[in-house]
Structures are given as structure tokens and as C-alpha cells.
């Protein structure tokens, strides 16, 4: 009889516990197949599905955090801050990393209360489990952010951002501009110098647990590079003065709008530029389109008699006239049109033509040149082309091609009709008279070395023009109210009717005065514009002259400019002023 072999480990077992040899083979085979299946699954997951699983893991726990760069400061020429960034916190959440059902209702209510948000809105944002990132509230105080984080709601986190603050507020809003909630420039130099100011953001790639806590860094931290400081040519002290006086002139004259530009007469730097109406860039809850208009840079208007010095300078520089040349200034006709003065005189010298603002006299000097010659001179003075300051939306004005001019149009262009300019263009053009006959480029940034100008008239001609333009602010001129105690002031007033519906309105005007001081050695140019004065007076000398005087006087004191007039110089009392009022 054949003997059956019994394994040693079964020899001591009871009969009921012993396995048949066939069963052992089956169990071992099943265990082997299971091991092979596990090995195959592991190979499948580690090789075939590796990218997919890695991506899924990264999506749940790997985060790349933005390390925000500190936006560069904007400062005035003396280093006074005009735009600075202050640290704030933003609260965000990762809905895919949280189960809203596990968050106590009381904590959600506290979260909504702290963030001043409706509870339904908070729940809606947190329950969108298809999103990995959603802002709950941006730019809140660090203290408030700390209260939110103390709630310890899984998936809710904070990150540091920067909020822009503008110490100068509304008085420099149109120059500095503002940034949006994402920190990018929206207006002014915040927009034009975005790349310079923004710097470069850094990044940090980390592994987070399900509660949003950082476990470890997964890559080298790329540090942020802060933005650069932008130093403007603006003098905050003069800017404050200019804005204050502009607002006061607006109120007194019940005007629709206004603008003022203050230039360094030697360098072309913009020391102040203000507009009304304005807005507070720190609180833009109510911001109408009209408030955002940088009128001094983008608005075009016909400059009226403030253009008369240019055809006169052209004739003087060409040797066709002298300051004492006498003209017949009686009303005359050009074709069907009539050229006349508001206060006509039979004859005037060139000096008197400027002082009394004679349309007839300026048009006759313009007629000494061909349309092409006059167009070229205007063009070289900067009219009809952009000042190229880099400021957004700056106007090039309008100067039609000379080939389309009619004789009457050449005449009207000599006294500021048929040509359109911006206030900044007009102020810049007057650097021809203050800088030895050279047109200076305009700069909104502080210059370490003045940029060279482009010669337009001879230095001697510029000197004669300054002397003649001083008579405008003296007794019998059109802008006696523009005088400044202790200084000789030169300039030109202008009063232009506004074009409405293709016709010139009888009751809508722009009052202008552009002038410089001290007239012997000019230091400043101030261009003043009052749009649609509604208190009765509308002549440039009357509505713009007083504000010009206050701005010029204060600015000269701020800069410590020595007086060039006798120490016993006195202003003409208001009731004794006999001012010639021009219509253009």
C-alpha cells in the first residue's frame, strides 16, 4: 500500500485542520496571482498614469504663490510723496480643498460679518468646488485679516497685497492718475510708466495640506523686484497754490471748467498742472467722466488773442516791422468778411497792437507772409503737433494745411480763430519768448540737465517781444489785473467765443491769460484758462488775470526769485483800473 507524504507542519495538526496538497497549490497560486495583480497595478499607476496622478496631486496640494512686488513711489521734484503703496491683505479661498458641509454655520456667519458680505454670497463662492482660487475680499486691513484667519476655516487663506495711496488727493489726480484693484495703472503717469513702477512679481511654489497650511517649498523662491521711484517735475507747493487759485476763480466766475499750467521758463519742466472739476483718487465711489478729463492736456480750444504774439514776432524777426512801426488799424474787409477791433483806433504802433489786442493790426502783419510761411512758423512753435510728453491722450491740436487756407482764414488765425490748441501747447509756445527765442521741449519729469531748445526767433526779437508784452499788464492794457507786486509781468490775454453747433455762440466764452515773470529774466510761465464763465465778466484779463497774479506771486515767493521791479512798485487799485477789453 502506497504511503501518502504529509508535510511536517501538518503532522502535528488535527485531521480537521490539515489541507490537502491540491488545496495548498490553489491557495499559493491565488496569492501569486494577487501579488502579480498588485504589481501590475503599481506599474500601471507609476508608469502609465504617473503624469495624470501627479497633476491631480499638484492640483489639490501644490500651489504657486505670487510674491507681489512693491510698486514704485511717485514723488515731486523735492522728494515729497505723491503716490505710495501701503501693505494690505486679501482673503481668498480654495473651494476644491474644502467641504462646506463640515464648516460650522456660526463660523460662516462670522466670516460674512467680518468681510461685510451677504452670507449667501460667501456660501456661493465657497461652494463652487470647480474653482481652485477665488477672492472673498481684497485689500482689507492686516488686523481684519488676522481676525478672519483666527476662525481657522479650512481652505480660507490670506495674501499680502499693496494698496495705492495719494497724499495730494484731488489737486494732482489728473497728473498722477490711479491704479485699479489689481494694482495696475489706469490713468495718468500710473498708466504711462506702468512698467517702471510695477517692477516684477516673484513666486513661491509650495505644498499645502488640506487645511491650507504650507508643508514645504517645492522649488527655489523667486524674489520680487520692486518698482522704481518716478520723480516728477511737479513742485507740490506750487501745485497746491495753482489748484487753490483755480478753484477760487471757478467759484467767483461761476465757470463750467478750468485749467492752469505752470512751466519753468528756463527748462520747460511742468511745475504745476491742475484742472477743475477734479476727483479724489483715494475714493472713486463717485467718478463722472467729466471729472477724469485732463483738460489742460487733452482738450482743444481756439486760443483767441493769446496767439497774436506769434505773427507779430514773425514780422519783427523778419525785419518787416519794429516795435514803433505804425499801422492803420481801422476796420477793413477781406472779400465778403470784415476784420474789426472791439475798441477801434485809427492808428497803432506794433507795441500798442499787442497792448490793446488789435485784430486789425495782427492780421495785417500776418498778411506780410505767405500762407506756407505762416503755417511753417506756427508749426515750428509746436502748434498742430503733439508736445510728446508721453502723457496719455495728449492733444496735437489742429492746424490745417496751408494749401487750404483762404485769405480771411489767414487773418483770423493771426488772432486765434481757425486754429485749435491745448493749454499745455500754448504754455510751451511761450517759452520762445522766455528762452532767447528757442522753443523748449516740455517735461513732466525732473531734469538734471535742461534739454536743448529749437531756435525759432532771434534772442533780440524775444527780448523786444517781452518788453512789448509787459505793456499788456500796465495801465491801458488788456490784463492790468495780472500785475504782480514787485515784478514786471509780460503776457497776453485772450477771449474766444466757443463754437457750438457750427456757429460761434454769443454767450459762451473761454477766458485766457498766458504770461511770464520776472519779465527781465523770466523764471516762470503761467497759462490760465477759464471755460464758460457765468458771473457776468468773461474777458480773459478779468476772469483769468487775477488768478494768474496770485499763482505767479506765490510761486515766485516759493522759489525765492528776486523782484525785478522798483521796491516802491504798487498795484493799481481795482476801482482805478481802466482795462481794455478784447473780444478775441
Which features would summarize this protein structure in a list?
19 strands, alpha+beta, Penicillin-binding protein 2a (Domain 2), Beta-lactamase, five-stranded mixed β-sheet, 584 residues
In short:
By secondary structure, the chain is of the alpha+beta class. Helix content is about 35%, strand content about 20%. The protein contains 22 helices and 19 strands.
DSSP E strands, number: 19
* Assembly classification: single chain
Radius of gyration: 38 Å
CATH class of the largest domain: Alpha Beta
Helix proportion = 25-40%
Supply the number of structural domains: 2
> Which architecture name of the largest domain does CATH use?
3-Layer(aba) Sandwich
Number of helices: 22
Q: Roughly what is the average pLDDT, rounded to an integer? A: 86
Largest sheet: 5 strands, mixed
Strand content: 15-25%
Named CATH topology of the largest domain:
Beta-lactamase
Structural class: alpha+beta
Low-confidence stretches are none
Q: How far is the first residue's CA from the last residue's CA? A: 141 Å
* CATH superfamily heading of the largest domain: DD-peptidase/beta-lactamase superfamily
Q: Outline, from the CA principal axes?
A: elongated
